[in-house]
Give the backbone structure.
Amino acid sequence: MARLSKLNPVEFERILVLARKQIWEKEAEDNMNTRDLFIQWLSSNSSKKYSSETIARALDEGSEYCMSRNLGKKKFWDIHDSREFAAVTSKLLSMKIYRLTHGKTAVVLYKAVSLYKDFLRYSQESISFESKKNEDADENRSKIYQKLYSVSKVYDDPTGITIKKIMSMIGNEIDESVVRDILDNASWAVKMSDDIYSFSRNADSVLRERVYPYFAKTNNIVTDTKFLKMGGQIPTLGRKSDSKSAEEKTKIQPEDFDKEKFEATLLHRYRNGMQFDSIDFENFREMYEILYDEVLTFDDNALEERLRYCGVIYKDRLFPVEGIIDSDTKEKLLSYIENSFESGKKVLYYKAIYEDLADAFASCYTLSDENMLKAYIEYSLTSRKYYFFSNYMSVEKNVKVDHNAEVEEYFLSSGKPMQKEEVCTALSHIPQKQVNRIITMDSRFLRNAKGEYFHIGIFEITNDELECIADIINGFIDENEYAIWTDVWNEMQDRMPVFLENNLYLSRLGVRNAIAQHYVGKFIFEGAVISLPKDKYTMRDVYQLYAKHHDEFTADDIYNLSKELDTVIYFDALTEVSVRVSHDLFVSKKIISFDVQMVDKTIESFMSKDYIRVREIDSFLAFPYVGYEWNEYLLESFLFSYSKKFMLLNNGLSLNNVAGAIVKKDGKIKEFVDVCAAVLSESRITLKKSEALDYLTEVNMITRRSYKELDAALQKATQIRKRKE
């Protein structure tokens, strides 16, 4: 730096001024309280559903409530640790009484809490980073200056050399913008053109002065500003134009009236709007004369032409601009629009502006809806950088609307799970089918509950937390070959309370779906079952694995498993590796054996026809001993897995009942519908649907009071009866 002060005092002084400025800014920032810094941070980030002040007020009220109820020992603004803040706010937001008594504030607070957590993390990261960044930047600039100064002593070409060549000489990895800034301000360099600099003493001295070209767009009335009709507003930017020329479409504002006086009269007399009729014209003339002691001589048509330049036309009424929105609110509106476009938005919907600034518009009683706001914006924003369309405005003339991005932004700005109906209502300008398709097809939107979804972006998880959950899942997989989400969730509740507090808005299903997306390729999530990619277990596999890993288990165990998996019971998977020996108990096939020939012979002694209802075997004294007492459940298992001669036909197994009929494997009856037809034909009931269903249930032919092939069974039963007649 000392050498730089001798080589170029001007540059050295510029760096000193910059350093002082940074010190002053740091001191000013230190003097700001946390609340002010948070609001400042909000204004520099992406657009929000609520204003910065609204979010800050929600935190104020939440903080006061926590202090008054002893939920925390510090005000929110005095908490600088994100985990401590999450612990306090999660208690607050989980209190039903708070949500009931502070409904509106609670809704805003959900979003405010998430934003303040981001702010706290940002603040911690910035403290150490900024000081080092500023120090490194000054040192780096000094080194670049030295390199450029050395180059200037070697190259003395009056025509100059390109910036590309200069960069190649000092190092292409250097920031070109820093190089240009030094050259633009150095006394020993002359900017010959946009990309050429000369270090020669003979370069044209005129070129030593810096030039800032100003580019002005051609004023095109058709494409860059609103059309005028009698001074009023008709087709706006972005709309299709007809074949008339620009001159035919525009009218020049007459200069024979005082516009400011017209606007003041309109505001004084017609704050709620005036109609273009003879009565209001006459009233306007009278008020104008009272205010200015001047008589207006314009006829009605001429007066209307001039009035159309003086306010916003909405629903055939003329409103004074300040009567719709006051100057302070206008500044908020303009700031919102500018910040939104600067943050990267391509379009702004009038409805969204109207809803997002609802707090600011609360005192604007004349502003009735988003359509009136649209008319106001189109009249007030005369800057040619905006284009206006039917539902939105843009900074691009040929903008393409991205509905996927709109839906995503809405979910992110909400900061919590949303019902699909709510989203469709809020984004009513997008067809409902398209909104539903985006939500259900885009993997970034995850289900939190029936009809309720959230964006993966609101899910908070660290790498350490991901590793911890992976350890939990792997622990269960090592033990059982699979993990069940309920078990994982219970373990997380014990070991990871802070993680769950940080995602308080999400249900157990929502957390499961978010975690599943983070573990793509590492684990397979199939419903409530989690397995390794090499296994990819299904629900059926889990039932079989459960039976495989338990020599004994109960009917209650299976019922609870079905609830954890949220699925039906796969009895066929259980029967492959286990035997049900009673209503309550299942045992492994490894610990039971049958004398198949003897059991089949015993069953045969009961068979007097092609079939026998399983409940007709009501005595098991003749059955050979197998280590467990014989009953209908043990008989059911034998028929499904062991018998060589017989099989059980029914409409499915049940946890609480044994039903169906035993038939010979080599007999005439092969299908359940045929045995049902035989049973019905031999009964004394009328072959009608309701009576048939009642009878089949009563004699334990069906496990539940429903049978999809009942009509076919009745038809066959009728045919059997006719043949017997």
About this structure: Confidence is low (pLDDT under 50) at residues 27-31, 204-250.
